[in-house]
Design brief:
Elements: H1 2-9, E1 17-19, H2 26-31, H3 38-42, H4 47-55, H5 77-86, H6 95-107, H7 119-130, H8 137-143, E2 146-150, H9 160-168, E3 173-175, H10 181-184, H11 191-202, H12 209-225, E4 230-233, H13 245-256, H14 262-283, E5 286-289, E6 293-294, H15 299-305, E7 313-314, H16 324-330, E8 338-340, H17 347-356, E9 362-364, H18 374-388, H19 406-426, H20 432-450
Parallel strand pairs: 1-2, 2-3, 4-5, 5-8, 8-9
Antiparallel strand pairs: 6-7
């Protein structure tokens, strides 16, 4: 099986990276400024890294994570790096260890293990490299063989970095994606203020539900001008609704005036998913749904440091009942592409694969977040393929803020897909030529087709 897997891997290992959904900072590519130092590159922005260290009692302030009130924080990047290095053993067996080791070896050429005794050597080697032209963001984009990468922005973002990129003449393809959560979730911080800004940017009167929907259409068009081919929705659940116009207006007025109950908030989010599906049929944008996360589970960390600090926890998620209103309306429409993700692995074979194996509008996104790992990828293929097949999936996307880990993640996905296919070939359930076709499809063809790239 290993020999077959290696044979399948060879033709695809150097195919271009297509990264259709992620959270890299577009300013990196717009300004093409050097990355500051190893700590600010690999530790401070990576919640995979600091959540593990925090779990072992290391304060976030010690890792350079700035409190919201601007309190005391460790500011010496070398000291932070040494703390990380002395605790690097904590990452044994995790995908973070695989990605970081890949970066250290393949990108920086370091051939000794990271620990407290090699911390300075690592820091100096990486710091020296980052000061060279070969390690500027655009040069790395090309070195990593990235064909296209999508960032993710709020509708309140004016996309100035994307405009600067287009004006720069650089040939690298960096596009945006429409993430309307700040003006869709009534429980979002500063929701009322966000609505006002939403109306200003779109030039629409958002005092009515019809005006609110026109504002979305306006901003979606603006995002498409910046290359967007998809929208993305990070809701607590996959709940959808399909209310009458009068019910929508009444619900919107409760939401707009801050009178929404938690049930109203869930109903509004669900209604907007259905509205986004309707808009996607009109404008061709792909609809991504990333549900099932208890955001900022740790209130102490949320209060002191804000969101996205490693305290997000997966939740059980229902798809069969939750998606039915949307699918009743649009699930059979071949013009619509809905890509579903999950953090609830129990739903793979029970719900998601059967749904995607039936509805023309549905596809399954790759293993996401906590399951972006070798075993997570294996479980996904084992539980989804028999019912959903390969061609109702959309290849791989890295969904990362950590730019340097992107090629490592794609390489892991390519290897794990080849390993899965090798088993089917070895057990005479698939011919070798078919496996070669599927390996390429999972690496390159399916993601380009699904995301219209």
């Amino acid at each position: 099986m290993r020999q077959i897997a290696r044979e399948l891997y060879q033709p695809i290992k150097n195919l271009p990276i297509v990264s259709p959904h992620g959270h890299t900072d577009p300013s990196w590519f717009a300004t093409n400024a050097p990355f500051a130092n190893p700590t600010e590159l690999l530790i401070i922005p990576d919640h995979y890294v600091f959540r593990m260290l925090y779990s072992q009692g290391i304060a976030l302030e010690q890792l350079g994570i700035l409190p919201r009130d601007g309190g005391s924080v460790e500011s010496d990047p070398r000291k932070i790096w040494k703390l990380f290095a002395s605790n690097y053993h904590l990452f044994r067996g995790t995908p973070s260890r695989m990605w970081l080791d890949w970066v250290f070896v393949e990108v920086f050429g370091i051939d000794v293990r990271l620990d407290s005794t090699t911390a300075d050597y690592y820091y100096d080697t990486i710091d020296k490299a980052l000061a060279t032209p070969a390690f500027l963001p655009r040069a790395l984009f090309e070195k990593f063989n990235i064909e296209v990468i999508a960032t993710t922005e709020s509708p309140l973002d004016e996309l100035e970095h994307h405009r600067a990129l287009r004006a720069s003449g650089w040939k690298g393809r960096v596009i945006t994606a429409y993430r309307p959560d700040p003006v869709v979730d009534p429980e979002a911080e500063k929701f009322s203020t966000n609505l006002q800004r939403f109306g200003q940017l779109s030039g629409e009167d958002v005092s009515t539900y019809a005006g609110y929907l026109r504002a979305h259409r306006n901003r979606r068009a603006y995002f498409r001008e910046a290359g967007a081919t998809s929208s993305d929705h990070g809701h607590p659940s996959a709940f959808t609704a399909n209310l009458s116009p009068s019910e929508c207006e009444a619900l919107y007025q409760r939401v707009r005036h801050g009178k929404a109950t938690p049930a109203d908030a869930e109903l509004f989010r669900g209604q907007i998913l259905t509205e986004m599906a309707r808009m996607s049929i009109d404008d061709g944008m792909v609809l991504q749904i990333h549900p099932g996360v208890y955001r900022s589970h740790n209130p102490t960390v949320l209060k002191r440091f804000g969101r996205d600090k490693g305290a997000d926890i997966p939740l059980p998620t229902d798809y069969v009942h939750a998606l039915k209103p949307l699918l009743d309306a649009y699930g059979a429409d071949p013009r619509l592409m809905i890509i579903l993700f999950t953090l609830d692995e129990t739903s793979y074979s029970r719900e998601l694969a059967p749904l995607a194996g039936h509805y023309p509008a549905l596809r399954l996104g790759p293993p996401w977040w906590f399951h972006d790992s070798p075993e997570g990828m294996r479980r996904f293929r084992e539980q989804c393929t028999e019912t959903g097949g390969f061609y109702n999936t959309v290849g791989f996307n890295d969904d990362t803020r950590a730019f340097f880990s992107s090629p490592a993640r794609h390489d892991v996905a390519r290897r794990m897909d080849c390993a899965f296919l090798a088993r089917l070939v070895a057990e005479h359930r698939m011919e070798m030529d078919e496996a070669h076709e599927i390996a390429r499809a999972l690496t390159y063809d399916l993601v380009k087709a699904a995301y219209k790239l």
